[in-house]
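Question (not urgent): is this output format expected?
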Amino acid sequence: MTDAPAHNFDAVPLLASLSPAERNEMARRCRFRRYGPGEHIIDMESDSREVYFVLEGTVRVVNYSQTGREVTLDDIGPGGYFGELAAIDGGPRSAFVMSQGGDALTAAMPPPVFLELLAKKPDIGIEIMRRLARMIRRSDERIMDLSTLGANHRIQAELLRQAKASQTDAKALPMISPIPLHADLASRVSTTRETVARVLNELARDGIVERRKNALVIRDMARLTALVAEQRGK
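Got this back:
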């Protein structure tokens, strides 16, 4: 158990509509804990039901194939949350979640408190539904990519997704920072690090991407978009 000041909830967008007093009350009813690098927070198929808010650090949502290959589903940073599915439907956990990189501080909200919050604050319930809708759309896209694209094009599609997610200035070149590790990209698209290295080298040679010290710059977003769209038949 880790004590944490209630104002940590001020940085959670999902709870932005709550008053300071309401956020303090929510924090009082949560359990705070700090996890070390690589430490498991949730195990797949476990019967825990808490909803977790990430206050510091980053956590990774993963599953494993029958051969033991790790498949990364998502990375969640400060202000994000996870575990809402089990709290809503009472089912077992659908994935593993672990601290990624350095330490991670989380606040675990008991399921009755979470469901009470949804009942009292419809705007929060609507935001949860929007998030679940985004997850379904992204899962559908990943399933189609895995079913129809070769490894080379799955890597291109993942780079395009990350570039779009990180772009905040339409006039600036998109960049992925920190520069993605080959192992991380391989885990996300179910391929090997060697394949990732080869594809990145090819994209760099063609002037589509450029490696910098702390970022991968997408120098030709239009060409990368066209490569992915062509393979998806769009």
